[in-house]
Amino acid sequence: MIEALKESYGHIFEDALINEIAEVGSFKEVPEGYKLMDIGQYIKAMPLLISGAIKVMREDKDSDELLLYYLEKGDTCSMTLTCCMGDAISEIRAIAEMDTTLIMVPIQKMDEWTAKYKSWRNFVFDSYHHRLNELLQTLDSIAFDKMDMRLVSYLKEKARINKEDIIHNTHQEIAYDLHSSRVVISRLLKKLEQMGKIELHRNYIKILEL
């Protein structure tokens, strides 16, 4: 576990903190689609990502989902940190975007490390800052961008996260993530295909030039 921590967090945390994380943390491997956290749950541990990616979702009163942001190697979820420190229930859903490995750290260590390690404090503050910027970008996208622009941004981010130009999502799954309808997404995808930007296949979408 220490080697994995050093590879992902060695540039952030000093050796003493990495050793403490290794002592109390639990190594976890989860498959694509695994639900790490759900709305309404109490949080008992926070994740430190070693590999893979996690998508963080919000749900409205009608149970429709909206993709907020992705977590990648070297990240943690600032919303999880907020719940940990406030002993509150989760207001987000976190699902593995691909096969993912992470280290779960008990929430009891949050306050201790914040007081003890400057690197941990900086990590927490930086996490809040990055996630806030991503949430603002999501808000701006919803408020100001047309759905075709949001769809292009979504496909680009999917390709970047998965490090390939193949998107293994159904039109309905994309619609869920973008808080839209399958009919609208299918129509926009077909338009992108006609423009030569993507290829639509039975079980996947191939990005050509976005």
CATH topology of the largest domain: Jelly Rolls
Low-confidence stretches: none
Rg, please? 18 Å
Give the biggest beta sheet.
Answer: 4 strands, antiparallel
Distance between the termini: 39 Å
| CATH architect. name of the largest domain | Sandwich
Approximate shape: elongated
Structure classification: alpha+beta
Instruction: Specify the helix fraction band.
Output: 40-55%
Number of domains: 2
Describe, in short, the structure shown.
The chain is an alpha+beta fold.
Question: Can you describe this structure?
Answer:
The chain is α+β, with helices and mostly antiparallel strands and 210 residues long. It is built from eight helices and ten strands. The protein folds into two domains: 142 residues, Jelly Rolls (Sandwich); 63 residues, Winged helix-like DNA-binding domain superfamily/Winged helix DNA-binding domain (Arc Repressor Mutant, subunit A, Orthogonal Bundle), CATH 1.10.10.10. The longest helix is centred in the middle third of the chain and has 27 residues. The N and C termini lie far apart (39 Å).
Blueprint of the fold:
Layout: H1 2-9, H2 15-24, E1 26-30, E2 35-37, E3 45-51, E4 53-59, E5 65-72, H3 78-86, E6 93-96, E7 100-106, H4 109-116, H5 118-144, H6 147-162, E8 166-167, H7 171-177, H8 182-194, E9 198-200, E10 205-207
Helix pairs in contact: 1-2, 4-5, 7-8
